[in-house]
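Below sits the subject:

***
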Amino acid sequence: MPYRFHLPDIGEGLEEAEIVEWLVAPGDTVVRDQALVEVLTDKASSELPSPVAGVIVALGGGEGDRLRVGDLLIEIEDGTPAAVPDPVAAPSEPATVPDPVSTPSEPATVPHPVAAPSEPATLEPAVRPPASGGPPPAVRPKASPATRKRARELGIDLATVRGTGPGGRIVESDLQASVVAAVAPTAGRADDPVRAGDTNRAGDTTRDRATGLGRIAAGRHPLRGVRGVIARNMAQSWSQIPHIHSFDELDASLLLDLRTRMTAIGREVTPLAVAVVSSARALRRLPLVNACVEGDEIVVHDRVNVGVAVATDQGLVVPVLRDADLLDLFGATAEIADLAERARAGRLTAADLTGGTFTVTNYGSLGGRWATPIIPPGQAAILGIGRIADRPAVHEGAVVPRPMLPYSFGADHRLVDGDLLETLKASVVDDLTEPLRLLVGA
């Protein structure tokens, strides 16, 4: 009797998940706790382990399908015998009366009205194993889940890649070599969408080729995976939250000076960490900004949790620094670095991506100056900071070059009016302009 494994409650109040990639196929033999499938929720991706050992009979959906909690995920023949009632023989006397239903020890003597576990076709699986006598299933290339995810982003079929890792395992460098080999023949062609030496295009085209940034084949593609999550969240934010924005720039001389001085004594502080800590301090003083609208209610959050937008190869993710108002500059710098590293490595958990009450996005790290950041669902405001660069500014009565930091605030106009937004902005800007305030507790 196959074991029927249903999509479990992954936590965080999530009700459904998308099948990103099956790590097994019908006919495969698995052991207990072996990874079966990678699923993606609105918070994070994770692998689900097998609850039993056995042979895969059927999969409950295809890659890209979305299942709800409780839906059938997979069927595994674990060797548990089926309980079939005997209409003739008493359980204690199986041999005294002819049995029209074959016993488990005689599967071939009399046809059995109920299919034995070796006849999976009667189970109507979503994905059937190959028919008897057909070609053997293809050997699954050896690669880690992170490498498989990276290959999907680059549009690489792992079956075409030669693995150079231990035991022929495909590693990241093999994917990069595959990308270079694929695009090299088109370099300089008139019809190549990204040509070598095209100085009219932003960014480093060599880097873009190596990372696969922005590359996708012509045609229709399903909106799923991390990009599908981003699309749903952005559509919800833009359609449900009436945004207002405020833009300006500040003199970052003292901010850069603090970073230089801290580095000299072996203590790292980043402008992004200063922005996070200064925002958290402001939210503590202005709790209406640390809130959101749910239906016809205002929900004021009891903790200050600041999300930090991180650009990854999979798309933009926003891991959360919990109780950011309790962090100092050094603690915030260390936690941001840890979250960013785990985000780019694909090692964030659902808990890392939930509970944010305010967001800081640093598009300046990508070279941007101005932007209109979108407020995530469940929040009332967001801060965006651009690239610090020397620009003309009035200093002590003269126009001189100064390192200027452009910034923009977005707010939910249902909660935040112009006066409150300017109060928030003034508090954060004061700390960014003179970050020593954050070290002395001013």
